[in-house]
Amino acid sequence: MNQTQMPQLWDKKYTCPVCGSIVTTKKVITDRIRIKNYDPDMKPNYEGINPLLYSVVTCENCYYSALEADFESSISPVYMEEIRKIQNELKVPKDVQFSKERDHKTAILSCALGTLFYKAKKQMCRVAELCLRIGWLYRELSDLENELKALAKALASFEECFMHSYVDEEKEPMILFYLGELSAKFGKMEDARKWFSMLVTKYKNSNSFYVKAGRDRWQEIKR
Q1: Distance (Å, whole) CA 63 – CA 98
Q2: Torsion angle, alpha carbons of 153, 157, 163, 168, to 10
Q3: CB 3.0-4.6 Å disulfide test: which of 19, 111, 138, 170 passes with 147?
Q4: What is the mean pLDDT of each run of 10 residues along the chain (223 residues)?
Q5: How would you classify the pairing of strands 22-28 and 9-15?
Q6: Long-range contacts of 202-211 (CB under 8 A, 24+ apart)
Q7: Is residue 68 packed enough to be buried (19+ CB in 10 Å), middle (13-18) or exposed (0-12)?
């Protein structure tokens, strides 16, 4: 069996923390993932199968959605009422199958559902990450209008995350990078310089690739 004939996806099962259903999602076999290059905003471009399509797990029974790392995490009863309200108001097309191989349209819908539930749980950093991924998926479809809408939401969500959430030092370089990068994208150059300066000053001894990329971008826009 040659490389192209080998299976690229496998089924992983989860238990939905909201309704208790067993949820199946396709995952990309790790050694099938090939990154070709990165865009300036660190979006990875893949050869062959695209793991971004499968990064969010969606329950096909109640539509609760979250990133794989978070999906089975217990949910505080404080947030459950808002989650139920969202679920009662959702109108998801019946023919969409989140457990099968996904196209971009299905992946975008899965990410969009994730943003609703992360908002309900007051996790704006995660909302920002998913809006960023939605923008990337629209970029792969060459849909600039929807890409920019998603990236504008990502910027607003990263700002809310940074200003009003606890941000640990492991995640902060990524957040500061995207605050700078997205500010620059939308022409907010003073903001961009502020965020990149904060990133490279606070984390000048870090090996994070966000710090390295941020340093390069800061030098570009300082001129």
Answers
A1: 9
A2: -140
A3: 138
A4: 66 97 95 92 94 97 97 96 96 94 97 98 97 98 98 98 89 96 96 95 91 91 76
A5: antiparallel
A6: 202/172, 202/176, 203/172, 203/173, 203/176, 206/173, 208/173, 208/174, 209/42, 210/42, 210/173, 210/174, 210/176, 210/177, 211/173, 211/177
A7: middle
